[in-house]
């Protein structure tokens, strides 16, 4: 009898834990399922918000130009832009005019000019009357023919390019590098010297231009307002170098 009673107790002990484990498993399954559903719902709004930030168009890029302010006495209008800068230097006008009339050396000291080649000179004065000038900044570059006017009696040197000034792309010249590239509709650079006294001269630089596209305008907008000031500072540095030779 003792052996039968012991076997019954053992069987009860074995079956009781199994019945408890089976009763616990169904309670865990709903809890696991409920934690997944909220996670799936919060993913969809996140994806939609990210996609809404992706659109970008050219109009937003071109607006950078209109928001660009500077204090370099510059004038902007739909037909073109005018940049001005001036310096008063302790030199007579003669050495200054020699530098500004040496168009072939512009690329050696003027920023934004990567190449300068005189293609024709006045037979009487020897001053340049035609030149190839390459203007560039970053990935943008353009080479065009410039008509150069040197008037020593008024201490003026002006280089003009574009149909606005009656100068077409080739202007009668057979070789024209970079003719298919185009940043500007026209470009004019004018230097004017004004003697103020003995060995004192005021230098005025005026740059007039019009971009060919709004994309070019936006890309150059970051440096546009600084062009005249940087160029006249480079000219001043060049004068010092020439004077020290």
UniProtKB/TrEMBL annotation:
- Which residue ranges have biased composition labelled Low complexity? 61-77
Q: Which GO terms describe its molecular function?
A: ubiquinone binding
Sequence segments annotated as region (Disordered): 61-82
Query: For this UniProt entry, what's an example GO CC term?
Result: mitochondrion
Q: Using the record's annotation, list all stretches that form the Coenzyme Q-binding protein COQ10 START domain.
A: 90-236
Which Pfam families does the record match to this protein?
Answer: Polyketide_cyc
Annotated family? Belongs to the COQ10 family.
Q: What does this protein do?
A: Required for the function of coenzyme Q in the respiratory chain. May serve as a chaperone or may be involved in the transport of Q6 from its site of synthesis to the catalytic sites of the respiratory complexes.
* PANTHER family with a match to the protein in the record: COENZYME Q-BINDING PROTEIN COQ10, MITOCHONDRIAL, SPERM PROTEIN HOMOLOG
This chain's protein is named Coenzyme Q-binding protein COQ10 START domain-containing protein
Q: Per the UniProt entry, what species is this protein from, by scientific name?
A: Aspergillus avenaceus
């Amino acid at each position: 009898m003792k052996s039968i009673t012991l076997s019954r107790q053992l069987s009860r002990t074995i079956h009781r834990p199994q019945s408890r484990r089976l009763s616990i498993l169904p309670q865990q399954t709903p809890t696991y399922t409920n934690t997944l559903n909220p996670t799936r719902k919060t993913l969809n709004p996140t994806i939609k918000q990210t996609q809404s930030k992706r659109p970008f168009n050219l109009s937003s890029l071109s607006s950078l130009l209109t928001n660009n302010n500077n204090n370099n006495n510059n004038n902007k209008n739909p037909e073109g832009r005018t940049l001005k800068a001036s310096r008063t230097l302790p030199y007579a006008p003669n050495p200054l005019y020699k530098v500004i009339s040496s168009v072939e050396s512009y690329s050696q000291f003027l920023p934004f000019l990567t190449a300068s080649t005189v293609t024709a000179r006045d037979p009487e004065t020897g001053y340049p009357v035609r030149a190839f000038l390459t203007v560039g900044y970053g990935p943008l570059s353009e080479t065009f023919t410039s008509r150069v006017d040197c008037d020593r009696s008024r201490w003026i040197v002006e280089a003009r390019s574009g149909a606005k000034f009656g100068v077409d792309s080739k202007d009668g010249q057979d070789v024209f590098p970079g003719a298919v590239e185009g940043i500007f509709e026209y470009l004019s650079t004018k230097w004017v010297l004004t003697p103020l006294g003995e060995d004192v001269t005021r230098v005025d630089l005026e740059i007039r231009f019009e971009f060919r596209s709004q994309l070019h305008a936006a890309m150059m907008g970051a440096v546009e307002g600084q062009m005249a000031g940087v160029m006249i500072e480079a000219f001043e540095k060049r004068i010092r170098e020439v004077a020290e030779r």
